[in-house]
């Protein structure tokens, strides 16, 4: 055994304070963390709304917003707020609310929010998938103006809602936008709310997890500040920010075994192997031994940052930077899963998933995406078509799965990857998303 662990003698193991992380967490319970994606039809007003939200939160100033907005449009890169807002310099940020440029993070009195994507129009779906695979909730932006809602429902409003739901995101905040263009018509808001409620419930969002806020992203009405337009007085519910702050991190049992997906792996002064990402489940502390999958190599936590602050420990939901020791950089890659060596995630080259089809599915080659991990594989079998709502078997061994339907499928991979039930995965083929869903 001595010969197998030469690294252990190179340097002393990091000192652990042997903290009871869960009681530390309870004691220090400060701000909660929540992550979200912003989705919706092209031109629904996603950029404008996010830009205005950050402006009203004093994360950015008006001049910077205008400048960056123009630049973004000129280079045609993206009309999304974050692409330009997040590119700013620290001096431009006001006190009280902070934003982390590298991680798309901003902070209010109660919550640290992470915006999980910064998509442009071109490559929106892959970005959204990466984001949705980690999101606690989604903001769906809808253009309420005449004809636009209807067009959106045929277009991306529907596709995006189904996609985020099939990725396991259960809470959705619907920002019914551009209400200034319909004179703040309550009737129009209710009409959209009714239609969307019906659609979202069919897509198996539970009513208690769906909220509707009438807003004008352009004028900043009901984002951070309540609308001062008398025509909007009928709405007395929560603002978008109040809805955001209601978000509870989803499905991250602190007591579950540690799981963290490596979003970035790089070299720093502190360590040749520094890994950043979000803790999906469990907790960790300085001195802990970790297992990196699929390499199966052990590493130790030398030091860490939790939500940008140096810390002794971190829990599920937090974004962390881990400085690792006793591991060679070749054993850690983006998309890897870092886990508890006592309760590791398994490696497998075959899995069964419940998939929402976006295209026709038959036995075929597919690229499997899980967060930032990509692996080549093949749909090998389709054991059943499932009822979209109940999940019950509707038909056994179909030859083909039609778009918009849900099926149980078996995928064979070309390599071993860390896999476990409940993971959110997406299948792509020829640059298109063909299916998304949860591992069984
Ligand atoms: P995105 O493609 O979803 O990011 O949409 P943009 O934010 O680029 O907005 C598309 C267009 O809608 C732009 O011309 C915006 O000025 C306009 N727009 C966005 N929000 C509002 C709003 O609340 N009211 C009005 N009147 N126009 C808006």
From TrEMBL:
- UniProt entry keywords in alphabetical sequence: Cytoplasm, Elongation factor, GTP-binding, Hydrolase, Nucleotide-binding, Protein biosynthesis, Translation regulation
Its localization reads: Cytoplasm
Primary localization:
cytoplasm
Q: Which domain of life is it from?
A: Eukaryota
Boundaries of each Tr-type G domain copy?
31-252
**What is the catalytic activity of this protein?**
GTP + H2O = GDP + phosphate + H(+)
- What family is reported? Belongs to the TRAFAC class translation factor GTPase superfamily. Classic translation factor GTPase family. EF-Tu/EF-1A subfamily.
Protein name according to UniProt: Tr-type G domain-containing protein
State the organism named in the record.
Humicola insolens
């Amino acid at each position: 055994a001595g010969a197998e662990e030469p690294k252990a003698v190179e340097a002393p193991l990091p000192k652990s304070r042997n903290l009871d992380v869960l009681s530390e967490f309870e004691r220090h319970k400060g701000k909660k963390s929540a992550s979200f994606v912003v989705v919706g039809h092209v031109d629904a007003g996603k950029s404008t709304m996010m830009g205005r939200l950050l402006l009203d939160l004093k994360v950015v100033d008006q001049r910077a917003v205008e400048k960056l907005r123009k630049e973004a449009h000129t280079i045609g890169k993206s009309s999304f707020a974050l692409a330009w807002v997040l590119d700013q310099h620290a001096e431009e940020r006001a006190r009280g609310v902070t934003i982390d440029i590298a991680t798309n993070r901003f902070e209010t009195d109660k919550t640290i929010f992470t915006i999980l994507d910064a998509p442009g129009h071109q490559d929106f779906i892959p970005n959204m998938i990466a984001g949705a695979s980690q999101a606690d909730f989604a903001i769906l932006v809808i253009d309420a103006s005449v004809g636009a809602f209807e067009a959106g429902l045929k277009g991306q409003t529907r596709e995006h809602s189904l996609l985020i739901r099939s990725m396991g995101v259960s809470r959705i905040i619907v920002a019914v936008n551009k209400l200034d263009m319909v004179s703040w018509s309550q009737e129009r808001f209710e009409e959209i709310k009714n239609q969307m409620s019906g659609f979202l419930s069919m897509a198996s969002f539970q009513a208690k997890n769906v909220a509707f806020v009438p807003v004008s992203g352009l004028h900043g009405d009901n984002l951070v500040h309540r609308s001062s337009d008398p025509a909007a007085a009928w709405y007395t519910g929560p603002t978008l920010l109040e809805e955001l702050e209601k978000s509870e991190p989803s499905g991250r049992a602190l007591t579950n075994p540690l799981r963290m997906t490596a979003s970035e792996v790089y070299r720093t002064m502190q360590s040749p192997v520094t890994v950043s990402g979000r803790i999906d489940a469990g907790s960790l502390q300085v001195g802990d031994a970790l297992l990196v999958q699929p390499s199966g190599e052990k590493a130790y936590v030398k030091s860490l940052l939790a939500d940008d602050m140096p810390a002794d420990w971190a829990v599920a939901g937090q974004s962390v930077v881990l400085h690792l020791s006793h591991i060679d950089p070749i054993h850690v890659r983006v998309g890897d899963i870092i886990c508890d060596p006592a309760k590791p995630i398994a490696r497998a080259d075959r899995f069964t998933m419940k998939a929402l089809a976006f295209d026709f599915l038959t036995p075929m080659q597919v690229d499997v995406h899980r967060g930032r991990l990509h692996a080549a594989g093949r749909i090998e079998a389709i054991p059943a078509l499932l009822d979209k709502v109940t999940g019950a078997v509707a038909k056994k061994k179909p030859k083909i799965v039609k778009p918009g339907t849900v099926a149980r499928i078996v995928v064979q991979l070309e390599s071993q990857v860390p896999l476990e039930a409940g993971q959110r995965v997406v299948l792509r083929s020829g640059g298109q998303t063909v299916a998304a869903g949860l591992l069984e």
